């Protein structure tokens, strides 16, 4: 390895325990051990654990938590573990150990090229953040190599020094300060991700940079070299083979199987002259979440912010963050031991399907994303804190087999809840045991059914009302309708409960009450009892054809969700959330298509008018004896539609980044809106709908749409 890094004399007393001349403990070792014990005993983690800390002897290797006196005896009798030059398990930072701020150290190397003095370089700081907790310093010198490259600790240190060299060495002689091989590689990979560049395009850019930069420059020569350098900085991921029918994953105890246990589908594609290695039919990617959570505490930019949820003071009656919600506080009351450590992480899970190749191709890709809610609102939803955890390659829709892809995540979440993982908090200079909990999921309504196990279509699709639904069938529209099903949720004595005219014909809701709210324990022990087969792992991902008796009539359970394996899942009152933006877009599309009488999209049809005549007392909407339907007050005429579209196209302007250019969504020829994204629909409903139709619609209709009184 290149560079002027000389760590030969860095705390060399740790490995000079015996004086060769006298055969006794050397004076520098005795002095150094006293220095170590003083440092370790001064740390908050030691003081909060009655003088206990990790034993760094050659046998315990920082894996046992022992009293200070016992650690002292172990060190004298067995010596320090190899390569423990930086006391990272005892609260020491890299820059504290190697920098000038550690005034007590008298054994530092004389070189000024060590890590601590280079933290002003953001790329060196990035490397330090990535390896802060678990780098072990080898005594590398120029040209030295690792004695045992198979050893994970040795390999980890080599990655660190390779990256550090890439961050410190200038790109070419005389270049601007801070321009290094690592900085250029980072920019190249960032552009590849931002602009979806192909690998061939990156190869071409790298060739161009080498040609135009001065001779002897350190620029990487291809996408492969660039990715290889950046991979040392990245977090681990695993590829797991999947049954082609999504029945099972070949993971852990099932990793050696060559065919599916449930459908006997082969795991590997047939070999031929061009394909001599084993290639699976399907696979998924899993990115462990624990490493990413630990990284948040290793970086100075995020470590302190991860405690924000416990340190902020919310105004009474206001909710500016999930930690202000009743469900968050209820969970903490149920598990006070978990709540005592503010650095424990609260997670939310979301998933949805999309087609990466456009609507013309039938390919369903389902990513699973986790986000930590510890961060403040300004950071919580930033893309860099939305952690992609699972990615299945499709092309088939996973349907009920989504649980199969969630198995590695559930296993890791159970470990993070029960035992946790060791982590280092750079903001408090402490090692601690990091635990995590999954509070809830967030999805649209179809994905809700895949995650919860309750089918979200049919008469019993409402997961709140369940079998106590008031839904009924529309004979003309041939659809299930939930109109006037929820007046019973109004407070008792509410005037709308008495109304017999504006809801179902001749019906009031004076004596109707909402269904009982079920706890997680009640749902699991009472409602899920008898679901056959109970778990996806017992029947395969697509083996839920045999339903519990009464399916579709008295219940809608099609499986026992894998989330019930989490020990705390029964303690949660709010397990699944609906993504408001998805629902809001559906409402907006239906409202605007009906207002503007879009052919094939409007909900105001002859069939709906016939059903209105059967169930509602609204004479002005009924179809007459000639089959003619009167013009409704909630539909815009030709001039009104043109006026609305022109207003949006010409008169509506939003600040940059607030919303898309809505003018591009106006189709003047077909008199409709098209191509609006979920956020555009949200902005339209929140900012425009309250006033934009005030002069175009009947006053009562406008008041109903705008939500004003």
UniProtKB/TrEMBL annotation:
InterPro entries: Transpos_assoc, Transposase_21
Gene encoding the protein: LOC108850791
Lineage of origin: Eukaryota, Viridiplantae, Streptophyta, Embryophyta, Tracheophyta
Region annotation Disordered: where it falls in the sequence: 532-551
Transmembrane segments: none
Protein's recorded name: Uncharacterized protein LOC108850791
Ranges where the Transposase-associated domain occurs: 11-92
């Amino acid at each position: 390895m290149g560079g002027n890094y000389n760590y030969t004399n860095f705390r060399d007393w740790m490995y000079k325990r015996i004086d060769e001349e006298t055969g006794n403990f050397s004076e520098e070792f005795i002095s150094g051990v006293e220095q170590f014990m003083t440092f370790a005993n001064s740390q908050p983690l030691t003081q909060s654990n009655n003088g206990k800390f990790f034993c760094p002897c050659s046998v315990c290797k920082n894996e046992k938590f022992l009293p200070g006196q016992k650690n002292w005896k172990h060190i004298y009798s067995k010596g320090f573990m190899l390569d423990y030059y930086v006391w990272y398990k005892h609260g020491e930072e890299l820059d504290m150990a190697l920098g000038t701020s550690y005034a007590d150290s008298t054994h530092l190397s004389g070189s000024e090229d060590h890590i601590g003095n280079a933290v002003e370089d953001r790329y060196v700081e990035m490397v330090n953040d990535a390896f802060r907790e678990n780098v072990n310093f080898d005594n590398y010198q120029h040209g030295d190599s690792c004695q045992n490259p198979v050893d994970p600790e040795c390999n980890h240190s080599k990655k660190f020094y390779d990256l550090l060299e890439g961050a410190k060495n200038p790109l070419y002689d005389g270049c601007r300060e801070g321009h290094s091989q690592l900085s250029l590689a980072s920019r190249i990979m960032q552009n590849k991700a931002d602009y979806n560049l192909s690998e061939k395009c990156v190869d071409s850019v790298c060739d161009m940079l080498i040609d135009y930069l001065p001779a002897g420059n350190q620029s990487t020569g291809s996408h492969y070299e660039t990715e290889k350098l950046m991979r040392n900085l990245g977090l681990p991921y695993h590829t797991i083979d999947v049954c082609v029918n999504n029945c099972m994953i070949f993971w852990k105890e099932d990793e050696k199987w060559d065919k599916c246990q449930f459908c006997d589908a082969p795991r590997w594609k047939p070999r031929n002259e061009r394909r001599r290695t084993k290639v699976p039919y399907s696979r998924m990617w899993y990115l462990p979440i624990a490493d990413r959570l630990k990284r948040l505490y290793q970086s100075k930019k995020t470590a302190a912010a991860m405690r924000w949820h416990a340190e902020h003071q919310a105004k009474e009656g206001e909710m500016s963050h999930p930690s202000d919600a009743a469900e968050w506080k209820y969970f903490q009351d149920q598990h006070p031991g978990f709540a005592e450590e503010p650095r424990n992480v609260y997670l939310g899970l979301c998933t949805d399907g999309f087609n990466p190749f456009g609507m013309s191709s039938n390919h369903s890709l389902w990513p699973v994303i986790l986000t930590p809610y510890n961060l403040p609102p300004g950071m919580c939803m930033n893309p860099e804190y939305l952690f992609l955890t699972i990615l299945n390659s499709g092309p088939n829709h996973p349907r009920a087999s989504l649980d199969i892809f969630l198995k590695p995540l559930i296993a890791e979440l159970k470990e993070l809840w029960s035992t946790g993982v060791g982590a280092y908090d750079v903001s408090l200079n402490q090692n601690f045991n990091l635990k995590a909990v999954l509070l809830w999921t967030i999805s649209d309504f179809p994905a809700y059914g895949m995650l919860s196990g309750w089918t979200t279509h049919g008469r019993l699709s409402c997961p709140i009302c369940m079998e106590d639904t008031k839904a009924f069938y529309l004979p003309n529209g041939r659809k299930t309708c939930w109109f006037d099903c929820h007046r019973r949720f109004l407070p008792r004595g509410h005037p709308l409960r008495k109304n017999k005219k504006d809801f179902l014909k001749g019906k009031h809701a004076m004596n109707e009450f909402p269904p009982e709210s079920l706890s997680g324990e009640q749902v699991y022990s009472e409602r899920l009892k008898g679901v056959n087969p109970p778990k996806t792992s017992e029947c395969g991902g697509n083996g839920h054809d045999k339903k519990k008796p009464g399916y579709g009539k008295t219940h809608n359970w099609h499986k026992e969700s894998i989330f019930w394996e989490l020990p705390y899942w029964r303690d949660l009152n709010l397990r699944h959330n609906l993504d408001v933006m998805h629902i809001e877009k559906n409402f907006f599309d239906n409202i605007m298509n009906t207002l503007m009488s879009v052919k094939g999209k409007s909900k105001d049809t002859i069939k709906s008018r016939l059903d209105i005549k059967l169930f509602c007392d609204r004479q002005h909407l009924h179809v007459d004896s000639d089959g003619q339907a009167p013009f409704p007050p909630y539909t815009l005429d030709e001039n009104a539609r043109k006026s609305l579209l022109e207003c949006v196209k010409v008169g509506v302007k939003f600040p940059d980044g607030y919303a898309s250019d809505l003018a591009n969504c106006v189709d003047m020829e077909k008199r409709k809106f098209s191509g609006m994204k979920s956020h555009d629909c949200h902005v339209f409903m929140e900012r425009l709908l309250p006033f934009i139709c005030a002069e175009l619609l009947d006053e009562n209709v406008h008041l109903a749409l705008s939500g004003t009184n």
